[in-house]
Amino acid sequence: xxxxxxxxxxxxxxxxxxxxxxxxxxxxxxxxxxxxxxxxxxxxxxxxxxxxxxxxxxxxxxxxxxxxxxxxxxxxxxxxxxxxxxxxxxxxxxxxxxxxxxxxxxxxxxxxxxxxxxxxxxxxxxxxxxxxxxxxxxxxxxxxxxxxxxxxxxxxxxxxxxxxxxxxxxxxxxxxxxxxxxxxxxxxxxxxxxxxxxxxxxxxxxxxxxxxxxxxxxxxxx
Length: 222
Fold this sequence. Notes:
Blueprint: E1 2-7, E2 29-32, H1 35-41, E3 49-56, E4 63-65, H2 73-83, H3 91-103, E5 113-117, H4 121-131, H5 137-143, E6 151-155, H6 158-161, E7 164-172, H7 174-197, H8 206-211
């Protein structure tokens, strides 16, 4: 598998144990299979950067694919709220977070690789809206596809870090790719607001999921 890591720096050897433990899926090395997206992530603040290319031998690695058929979006939400640090302003959000962690958090800690949606700041705001009971489960599912962020691949174990090799790096000019990143985020927010204007019939809010004691086997998640 060829993967890319967008960074302001050249990263020849990814180091296990480094990084931000409060990213979407915890401490790890975050990659994408999309070169153009990696170039956008390489320029977060207007500086030039690099899309570092690696070859990943995933054959012997255990992988949790949160975007696959074995998991649902509430599993993804539970992992997200488990790792992200954010302020909770409403009692329903605190109650919902606890319910997600108690009932939908998969045992992700021992996997070598996790695949799943990417939730940068704007996309995390969509997740927080669901947690605050202001959008439905269906609206959350649609929101996560806005902007075409695709799937991120996160290396989490020493074995995974031993299975990746640097190939080369592609320069990313901020004059092009920071602009693309900002534009993608703006379009996603605009499309999100348009989606909220559409009629939502029979939508399920988090409060209903909690009150009705939903689990992974609930037909509304199949």
